[in-house]
Amino acid sequence: MPDQQSAYQCPSATTDPLRLLRQQLQQWAEELGFQQVGVTGVALTEDEQRLQQWLAAGYHGEMGYMADHGNMRSRPAELLPGTLRVISVRMDYRAPGVELAGALTDKHRAYISRYALGRDYHKLMRKRLTELGNRLQQAAGPLGFRAFVDSAPVLERALAANAGLGWIGKNTMLINRKAGSYFFLGEILTDLPLPVDTPDRADHCGRCTACLDICPTQAFVGPHILDARRCISYLTIELKGPIPTELRAGLGNRIFGCDDCQIGCPWNRFSKPTTEADFSPRHRLDKATLLELFSWDEQTFLNRTEGMPIRRTGYENWLRNIAVALGNAPASLDIQAALQQRRPLATPLVQEHIDWALQQQLSNAVNNS
Fold first, then answer.
1. Which residues sit opposite 92 in a β-bridge?
2. Which of 222, 317, 321, 341 is most buried, with most CB under 10 Å away?
3. pLDDT by residue (tens digit) across 67-115?
4. Interatomic CA distance for residues 243 and 232, integer angstroms
C-alpha cells in the first residue's frame, strides 16, 4: 500500500477527514489515560544502522531476542504488512510519594526500579491501546491495526521520538521536556495514513553528562551507547547466570532494575506523578528491607509478585540479587546469620553469591572495626 502522507499535509482539519481523526485520536488517548499521543511513518533507516552497530559490538549480552527476526525490529511493515503509520503513546508511571534517590542511601532497604513496584504495565496498556485502535476503526471504517507494548520486535523509543513524544537522551531513554522520562511507551501499527507529527530533532541534553557520570557500573561507552552487559537492569533482570564479581559492588542495594541515569537527569524535575492507582507500590515494596525480602520462600515470592514485572526475574535470581545487596550492606550479625541460614537450601548459583556476600560482610566488619 503506497504511503499517502503528501496527500494529507495541506488541507485544514475541517475538510480533511484524516486530520479530524487525528484530533479525535488525541481526545480518545487522554480519555484512556495516556498523557501524549503522536503519529509517525515507518522509516527508521538511521536507527536500524545504529542497532546493527550496537549488536555487532555485542553490547546486548545474553539478550538474543534483540538480534532475532532480522531487520523486523526497525521495519514495522515487516511486522505487520501494510503498515503506513505508527501511533505512539506514553503513560506516566512514577507513583506519588515514592522515594527515588533517598531510597538508595539506606543500604538495609531494597531498591526496586520504580516502574516495577505496581501492576505489570503490559496488559494494562495493551488493553487500552486496543481500545484506542477500536475507536479509530469505528470512526474510520475497516482498517488494519495491532497494538504492542514490549510484546514484539519494535524500536519503540525511535518511533516515539519520530512521533514527537521527545528525544533520545544520552542515557538512551526517551526524554520529554515537559515530563522527563518516567513513562511507559506503547504503539499501534496501522495501515491508516493519518497525518504525521513533527519530531523534535534538537539535542536538549546539551553538554550535560549527569546520566553518564552517575551510572554505578559505568555502563555507558559514551553518549547514547549503553553496554547492557554492565547495566544493573540487565544484570538483575536479564542475566541468568552469575553476576560478574567486578560489578557486584556497583549494585549497591538495587535488586531489580536501576533508575540512576533517570534520577540524575535534570529534565526529570518536570516529571509528573501518575494518576494510575495500579502503578502504586504493592506490599510496601518501596520500603521493604533486604532481610525481609530475602526471607521469602518461593511460594511467597510467586504470590506477592503475581501480576507484577518483578515476577520476570524468577525466584532464583531474586535471591541472587538480594544476596549481592546484603554483601554490599554495612556489616551486620543479622545479615550474616540470614545468609548462613539460607545457604544450605539454595541453588549452587545462589550459594556462590551468598559466599561472596559473607566475605564482603566480614571485610566490612574488619574495615569498620
1. 183
2. 321
3. 888 899 999 999 999 999 999 999 999 999 999 999 999 999 999 999 9
4. 10
Q: How far apart are CA 359 and CA 364, in angstroms?
A: 9
> What is the per-residue DSSP string for 290-311?
HHHHHT--HHHHHHHTTTSGGG
Which DSSP state fits 131? Answer: H
pTM: 0.93
Grid cell for residue 257: 532494575
Q: At what angle do helices 348-367 and 333-342 cross, to 10 degrees?
A: 160
CA-based nearest residue to 107, from 339, 289, 262: 289
**Which residues are CB-contacts of 199 (< 8 A; sequence separation ≥ 6)?**
40, 161, 162, 163, 164
Torsion of CA 34, 275, 158, 153, to 10 degrees: -80
pLDDT at residue 14, rounded to an integer: 53
User: Which is the catalytic residue, given 3, 16, 150, 278?
Assistant: 150
Look up 150 and say whether it is catalytic: yes
Q: Which three cell numbers stand for residue 37?
A: 499521543
- Residues annotated in the binding site for tRNA, as ranges? 240
